Amino acid sequence: MNDTRVPILLPLPFPGPFDYAVPEGTFVEPGNVVRVPLGPRTALGVVWDASDSANTVDSSKLKPINQVLPTRPLPEFHRKFIDWVARYNLCAPGAVLRMSLTAPEGLLPPSSERWVRLAPDQTPPTGYRTTPARTKIINALSNAPEQAMRRKAVVDAAGTSTSVLDGLIKSGLVEAFERRPQGRWPVPKLRRETFSLNDAQQDAADHLVEALRDGFSVSLIDGVTGSGKTEVYFDVIDRLLADPDHKGQILVMLPEIALTGQWLSRFKQRFGCAPALWHSDLTPKMRSETWRAVSEGEARVVVGARSALYLPFRDLGLIVLDEEHDGSFKQDEGVTYQARDMAVVRANIAKCPIVLASATPSLETVLNTLEGRYKRMILPSRHGGAVLPDVSLINLREDRPERGSWLSPALIAAVEQRLEAGQQTLLFLNRRGYAPLTLCNACGHRYKCPSCDSWLTEHRLARRLVCHHCGFQTKATTSCTVCGEEDSLVACGPGVERVGEEAMRRFPHARIAIGSSDTMQRSSVRDMIEAVERGDVDILVGTQILAKGYHFPNLTLVGVVDADLSLYGGDVRAGEKTFQLLHQVAGRAGRGEIRGEVMLQTHEPDHPVMQALISDDRDAFYETELAQREMMALPPYGRLAAVVISDPEEDRLDTFCRDLVQRQPRNDEDIQGIKVFGPAAAPISVIRGRHRRRFLVRGTPGVRLQPFITKWLKGIKTPGALRLTVDIDPYSFL
Ligand code: ADP
Ligand code: ZN
Fold it and tell me: Ligand 2 centre from 471 Cα, in Å?
């Protein structure tokens, strides 16, 4: 393309690309990353594809492109993907592009490294003096491959200073040169010597490899925890990498939390090298290097959380998305999207297969397999005959914990048994902190967040009261801040810290560790996991951070302190999510030789979720859930979208909402199959000082909501600080 004008998409929330002039002698093609003037500054942008929308600015008034960056153009399948995500989620394409350009240094050519090598001629010049330090450097280089090393490496190896090295370079015995960093992205190769898949696994892997030949397809590996789903996709990955006809890259997506320790060590152990890793904690340097390696196609296997979806793959050959039901694949803030669904779209556009894996697939995926759109491979049992744990309910109405305690006598007895037998226990409660509510016994004051409609959670270890919605924190005091009474504050309800405290009281000789996401950095999670693996922990008390994917052979008991916690609260997926979470937690028990036991403390022993868990009849539960959702035209049958409006000023918010109701399209053809609920105060009606209202738009099966919402919100002006966000396929109903 060498027109005089081209559309440039900027990584900013504008409705679309802007035209810029192409200076004479400059060659650009779609996908090129460029620098362009924007107001008084310059901005990065990407040459976009010509669109139908006629750009009205006169050619002579266009600003010229400043610079074309020497980076590989974003491939067409990537640009199409960005447009698709923007259209589907009703957000600005530039906001999506921005997620692809998160490592600016990665756009520049790699900096080369400084190396030294022995000069071919080793005759010392006149006046040269041999010193022990110089000899050490010469020796180190003589022993190195190609007699060359990085500057820093040779100085370190010889234990000398850089000035000794510089002296040698001056003498001509050593030469300095520059070299592009290389070999950092080896192609992983599976170590098969000590390992073979069992029949069901082999079958699944063979089917998948078969499916990989046909371009786009979606497959689900459906198997209980421990059945070897990971081993199956490792095998498939390896066969792809070994196939000389397959040059594509492989993206493995995991929930953020699973990117710690165990999965990666296992990958390294099985493949002999680490994959390229993409997550929020990377150093800026690693980000840039990884971004570039993905863009150049050097990184063949990339593992990341949902943001890895927007990496600039040169050639995508396979996507694997593990724990596909996991709620963290949905991004709720900024550009909202469901990464699992977008991954399927990405695979479709790239014409490559995608493999989903889960022990408790989402109902969306289950329905897709039932209706034949997705293939399904079933791994029926745990590898090596390890049996699934025995799940039982503890009815809290009958088997009551003592006052001020949370562990029922039956659970306590079971823990004691494990302690005697030298086995490990996990006590699970999905609530961070010490207690979800603090109140004053003297005046009745309840500690509330100043800017949200929510109680402050006490975090006793940190001596703070914390809002879990906005992060507000204040020091925990011993006297009431309202009436001044000393020691009058009481904690209500349990969090993990409090259950940990009870465990320490009841089992004074046990070694107890408490783990929850706010007390733990990525590294300390790893430390804790390793301590459990070494057998240095008897009782692990934790939140969902410990529920995922870990494999502890000596952990034989899981006690769920409050199984009902997520069962209520206006979320259409509450039952499904509770089932998935508890099933996953239960899967931590008995992954070794000894059969595991799971005890669920509940006030609702008859609830279908609890019944499904004890009878281990997942499919019956799914069937009932599906039937109910179908009846109510809820996902995965019907579609939902949320329009959430927030404003610090409640009156203005209500006026705006009334106006929105007025503006709803009413033509028959616009509202066919669509129903709008609301406005209603959102369940947490104030967050960060902003009042919140929500409309819920529901479409019957097959009806797209986007055209309706676009028409509804077209040309709308949001006054002052009022904010309006659209969330297609919402998962959070707070
Ligand atoms: P999933 O991903 O379904 O939870 P994994 O792949 O993590 O299951 O397997 C569970 C455990 O069983 C792992 O430690 C794994 O190495 C082991 N395993 C699975 N399949 C085999 C096999 N065919 N041979 C030996 N060990 C296996
Ligand atoms: Zn708050």
Answer: 6
227 lines ligand 1 (CB under 6 A): yes
Q: What confidence tier does 116 reach under pLDDT thresholds 50, 70, 90?
A: very high
Whether 585 contacts 426, CB under 8 Å: yes
Residue type, 229: K
> Closest-lying ligand to the alpha carbon of 474?
2
Q: How many CB atoms lie within 10 A of CB 333?
A: 8
Contact 679, 694 (CB under 8 A): yes
697 closest CA partner among 185, 220, 90? 90
**Cβ–ligand 1 contact at 230 (below 6 Å):** yes
pLDDT given at position 1: 45
Q: Which long-range CB contacts under 8 A does 47-53 form with residues at least 24 apart?
A: 47/1, 47/6, 47/7, 47/8, 47/73, 48/6, 48/7, 48/8, 48/9, 48/17, 48/79, 49/7, 49/76, 49/79, 50/6, 50/7, 51/7, 51/16, 51/17, 53/16
Q: What is the pLDDT of residues 323-371, one digit of tens each?
A: 999 999 999 888 999 999 999 999 999 999 999 999 999 999 999 999 9
Q: Whose CA is nearest to atom 25 of ligand 1?
A: 195
Choose the residue to mutate in 191, 196, 231 for probing ligand 1, maximizing ligand atoms within 8 Å of C-beta. Answer: 231
Structure confidence by residue, pLDDT tens digits, 662-687: 999 998 888 899 999 989 888 788 99
Task: Read off the pLDDT of residues 685-712 as tens digits, 9 standing for 90 and up.
Answer: 899 999 999 999 999 999 999 999 999 9
Tell me, using a 6 A CB cutoff, whether residue 551 lines ligand 1.
yes
The average pLDDT across 5-12 equals 94
Mutate to test the pocket of ligand 1, among 224, 320, 383 (most ligand atoms within 8 A of CB): 383
Q: Which of 351, 372, 357 has its CA nearest to residue 213?
A: 351
Q: How confident is the model at residue 588 (pLDDT cuts 50, 70, 90)?
A: confident
Residues in the chain: 734
Angle between the N-to-C axes of helices 618-631 and 363-370, in degrees from 0 to 180, rounded to the nearest 10: 90
Question: With bands split at pLDDT 50, 70 and 90, how would you rate the model's confidence at 405?
Answer: very high
Phi/psi zone of residue 355: left (φ > 0), alpha (ψ -120 to 50 degrees), beta?
A: beta
- What secondary structure letter does DSSP report for 448? B
What is the four-CA torsion angle of 280, 282, 285, 287, rounded to 10 degrees? -50
Measure the CA–CA gap between 723 and 689, rounded to whole angstroms.
Answer: 13
Share of the chain above pLDDT 70, in %: 96
Ligand 1 within 6 A of CB of 197: yes
Which tokens go with 681?
């105060």
Among 253, 409, 420, residue whose Cα is nearest residue 344: 253
The CB density around residue 88, as the number of other CB atoms within 10 Å, is: 17
Please, what is the end-to-end C-alpha distance for the chain in angstroms? 48
* Radius of gyration of the chain measured on its C-alpha atoms: 30
